[in-house]
Amino acid sequence: MEMLMSVALGIGLSAAAGFRVFVPLLALSIAALSGTVELSPGFAWIGSIPALVAFATATVLEVLAYYVPWLDNLMDSIATPTAVVAGVVASASVITDLPPLVRWVVALIGGGGAAGVIQGASALLRLKSTAFTAGLANPLLATGELVGSLFTSALALIAPFLAVTLLGVLAVSVFLSAGRFLFGRSGGP
To answer: How does residue 183 score in pLDDT terms, banded at 50, 70 and 90?
Structure first.
């Protein structure tokens, strides 16, 4: 059961990295420093004071950058691959009860995949927002993404299974909405 909990925690934190890259790593650093989360071998550095300072600084800079009109779209091009890496690191760092090979496979597929899907959807939403509102709605989107990352990070740390369940519901909703948008409604009047 503890192994499933650590996988759920990793995937929840990874999904949060899809909204904002550094928020879940900062949350993980705080949780590790407080003794709330056990880190996998080789990831003790995440629970250090220098890592906490680095993640806090990076979080502030990332959050602020998304409120600069032209920089937000540029940030998405940088954040997309970075979010996947952060998702893999977040997952691998908390999965403690699996052999290293299995841990890394789960981190790559589950963690990197969760971060990539969320980040990709958010980047597409920002592009649409920029196109339809000339970027005027992007600060609202940036705020929503920040809240999403904070909420998902906290939920993953408090109730990992609930976080993964909600992320699954969100993913299904996004895919259904994308399908309706791309292919139109089928079978109805």
So the answer is: low
